[in-house]
Amino acid sequence: MSAPVAVVMGSDSDLPVVRSCLETLDSLGVRYSVQVLSAHRTPKEFHRFAESLDESAVKVVIGFAGRAAHLAGVLASLTVRPVIAVPIESGTLQGVDALYSTLQMPSGVPVATMALGKAGAVNAAILAVQILALSDEGIHHRLFEHRRKMTDDVLEKNRRIQADFNSRGG
Ligand code: RP5
Question: Do 76 and 159 lie in a common domain?
Fold first, then answer.
């Protein structure tokens, strides 16, 4: 693994949410590797992968899991690389189970838990890039550009909405 960000999902059914994270990493020009590995369905392979992280070029790990989501916590227990987690909205409890499982880590093994679903996936990518930006000027600059574009987009929408509705109101 030579990319600085490793993305891990517990099932390929998580992919629609994971895509938002990958698209954000692409838009910020940051390379990543992607794995489908489950802490409970593929425990040996999962452990092998997690234990290889500290010796690899990976600087940040992003984990996605739904239901009884122990993926990120187990990952974080096997590496000292920072682990960012996105709980997936799925199953009968619609993600509340995954949110609590991911968020409520006991002290000593932190997991940076994002919001449920696609907003969390985008923010996981941005947070990972912010960590990389601490030691990379180019990435630092791209983050500023990303923030500026977001602001410009909202202001452009504001201009259009104002032009439309405020003119009607007389
Ligand atoms: C978790 O269980 C996965 O991350 C996924 O969100 C959830 C359901 O997996 P599937 O039954 O759809 O494979 O481990």
Answer: no
